[in-house]
Queue: 3 jobs
Job 1
Amino acid sequence: MSGSQTLHVASKCVHRKYHFFAAIALSLLSLHAHAEWEVTDQGTLAEGATATAVSADGRTIIGQRIMAGDSNHAFKYVDGVMTDLGTLGGKHSNATAVSADGKVVLGVSERADGSYHAFRHVHGQGMVSLCTLGGNFSAVRASSSDGEVAVGESRLRNGETHAFKYTDQGGMQDLGTLPGGSRSFAYEVSADGVVVIGMADMANGDIHSFMHTDSKGMVDLGKVSEQGALSAPLLLLNSVRKHDS
């Protein structure tokens, strides 16, 4: 095990504004979701709609759609029908991950107080906040195949950004950072929800990849390559570092 392995279970949701970070994350979450895709004409979903992910069975497409009143809402598209998933009380939301069967959708949504929270939307149950690690922002980047495990990043009370892993049993768990670093992001998780991967900064400013399991904690996989430096997660990490400095 290496790095700081702080366990944090979110006990309540906070209510503060952080529009700069949220704007970057909403756009880059979408960029990361389809940066490797090859576009094929399948007809039109709806005007102003951007698809971000598709379920393993291919039946459910999720994303974000421009709405009236200068707002954007997460959507789910199944068998030719687009469903507005709404928000957690604010104007904006974006769907970024979906379970294999398409029944669980996850993402990030603005709340009425201007903060942004990670959410999970279950068919027939609506949108629920996953809260934060104590700060005013959290967002889901990926989920396990059953949608029960979600990973992403969240602001802490001290303003730092840490990777998280969320389960109903454990709540939002702070995955910590690598030695000497202060920021980390999780952007993928294995189908069974056991292995999480992401990026984190080091004391000297370098960015390293990591893997995390509950048994081993955060393991350093080495410095990010030049090609990896162009990835959406790293662009997001660098943008937040510049803003916080």
Note: The chain has one domain: 19-244.
Job 2
Amino acid sequence: MPAPRSGPGPGSDSGSGTSTGPHVEPVPGEPAAIATLDRGYGDQSEPPQTPERALFIADYHAGYEAGLRYERGVDVPSNAAERRERLFSLIERTSPDHLVVLGDLMHSIGDPGGAERGELEYLFESEPLQSLDVTVVKGNHDGAIETWLGGDADASAAPAPVPEPTPSPTSLTIVPGDGIALGDGSVGVCHGHTWPAREVLESDVLCLGHEHPCVRVEDEVGGSRVERVWLRGRADPAVFREHPGLDRDALPVWVTDDDAEAPQLIVVPAFNELVGGTWVNSAGQSFLSPFLPDGVVDGEAYLLDGTRLGPYDAV
């Protein structure tokens, strides 16, 4: 393992030799980031609006412990209260205008059971979320979440909501897993289990979850531990030319023009510390996303405290 290096965090372009672009900065010590989103101009005669602060988290996996009992027969005490308080503490610490969940808010792939649904209902009925705009990008575990969580569902082929949905935050929007562009379009978000939408690929920064990136590190006496990490690099045009959902003439310029700058690609670590993940520094490790690891160039790993570990596959 190379010696950890100090340096810019996984969301910073400082020192990269490229333009700074939009800011997506990790919250020190947490699997979360703050994105400063330019809202752009309305009427050209008006001044630009104040940038929006969006808190990004991924892979909350509410009800995970109940899933372990059902799927594997493993009895683990619920960490629902601890997860909720960690999120509320983050909201208090960072004062965002907007919470963006990059998929897998819930754990069960089908309809949530009692414990999982209860966890989410309590979460969304609580004051910290009632005071925020919330966007949920649907992950592969989120099932038909739009049918009972409420809000403005934009998920494809969504059935009608059930009666008496969970009380919604100020604004709750649920979008498909291939994602959306936020603010003025410069930051794109998706879950990562499918190829990103075109508008996400046209952003300057592409953020995703799903992978639960981790590194396995060893000490001098042969002991080892697993740490959650951020992955950061540039999107590889050659890989995204193979996008199965877009015709070649619909691809973003950077995919087809070698002189155009590709977006920064950031893989957000899982918020839920129990779910495990991809050991990105383990030879032969299979990745979950259809465009990783080949889709990221010069990818580097960073610990949650911001320590730069260097190339993720050499840690």
Note: The first strand starts at residue 23 and ends at 26.
Job 3
Amino acid sequence: MMPPVRYAVAVSVVLLFAGLAGDLRGAEPATIFNFFGIPQGVNKVRDAVVNRKGNFPGLERKPALKAITDPANLESEVPAIRVAAEVKKDIDLAPQKIKAIKYLAEVGCSCQEGVKDALLASLDDCTEAVRYEAALAFCHAAGNPCRRCERGSCCAPDVVEKLTDMAHGQDERGCCSEPSARVRQMAAAALRACNRMAPVRETPIRETPVEMPLEAPPALPSEPMPPIPAPLPMTMGPVSGVRSVALIQPIEPKPMPAVKRLEPPRQWIIPEPE
């Protein structure tokens, strides 16, 4: 049997480590010392003695750091603390969002309202993994292209427009609308799955034909028709409005003019003086 002193020391050590672990988690440490109020008394004496006159403010105890997602930080007046708590809380919900998206993909958009809107809103989530799972959900919820009357498909016009923008859209600087490459690939796959579905065709409304009264044909004139004029004879010369045929006449050869023979120039010989 363990002696009482050793047993008390072992229990004190276990409670001390449990208190340190609770202090790291931000919770009130539960130790045997706190049970007897020893740390509370020490802190009270320290606060009353260390900076009694205000000459040593740096020696006062500082408040313990809280977790970023602590409920008190969500109501903080400091914008940085409040926004950090909201962002961290939203990022920490990513696994829960992905789990919900997978379930909505199995349910489909046939009967339950709000499924399509929830998945469509997930495509704009700040977490890349959530947007990827949302595009994958639309790919699975596109329906079976072999069925003509598929009612569980989520391929609405606004969904197709959003998937097209994510897969091929660019901003004014020429950059892709979706920064993640794998999300763009999954959005393109979901878009192809939606395009394979047969478009919904509206049943044409059959209109009853209206019978219109038939009008009697106009009566033929009793007077005889004027005689048809005879065709104009073809002329040799050009006639305005009528294409005439010109006869080709043979050209008589003309005599060539006589060619004058050119004489060589005369050369004058001047005798040399003796």
Note: The chain has a mean pLDDT of 75.
